[in-house]
């Protein structure tokens, strides 16, 4: 059981946009080095970002979505803060959902408390080392006990479980088309996506 990546994202002001490249990553931490081989590492990181951005754009304020697809789980939490902040985690399928939910609640809460809103527009000004310590600390799900202190907030969160990223999309949207049109994905990452979907598991692509 492991947490592979954590992100704090900020949604665009345009609520109608479906362009994943408009979603800003304010801070991030990942363990991709231990997940895939060197050659595929950059594409794997880009695809994790693309997936979490895509889900984040389609998550209502005060909601959480959990998507299990291609051998991974992607958890996205959007707190009710009016600041368009979203927390995201990529885990393996065995990682407990409740622990991931608590982790994202703590991640977003601590970020909003520690990082001034006026710095959101300039990633270079954002200092939030806690995201790296959380990635290390919560590799062990037993660390769930301290984050269950935020259980009250989670109980008020609308949680939606999906089996695939496609099920998150609006009617008529196709994931293949989003990947092809994405301005945030390189040609190498798009090829990585297509290969991973054919094999139905990113984690076996080394």
TrEMBL record:
Cited Gene3D superfamilies: 1.20.5.110, Longin domain
Residues of the Longin domain: 7-114
Listed GO MF terms: SNAP receptor activity
SUPFAM superfamilies: SNARE fusion complex, SNARE-like
Keyword Magnesium: no
Record family assignment: Belongs to the synaptobrevin family.
GO-annotated cellular components: Golgi apparatus; plasma membrane
Record keywords, A-Z: Cell membrane, Coiled coil, Lipoprotein, Membrane, Methylation, Palmitate, Prenylation
One Pfam family it belongs to: Longin
Subcellular location: Cell membrane
Entry's Gene Ontology BP terms: endoplasmic reticulum to Golgi vesicle-mediated transport
Membrane topology: Lipid-anchor
Full protein name: Synaptobrevin homolog YKT6
Keyword NAD: no
Family annotation (InterPro entries): Longin-like_dom_sf, Longin_dom, R-SNARE_YKT6, Synaptobrevin-like, V_SNARE_CC
PANTHER family membership: SYNAPTOBREVIN HOMOLOG YKT6
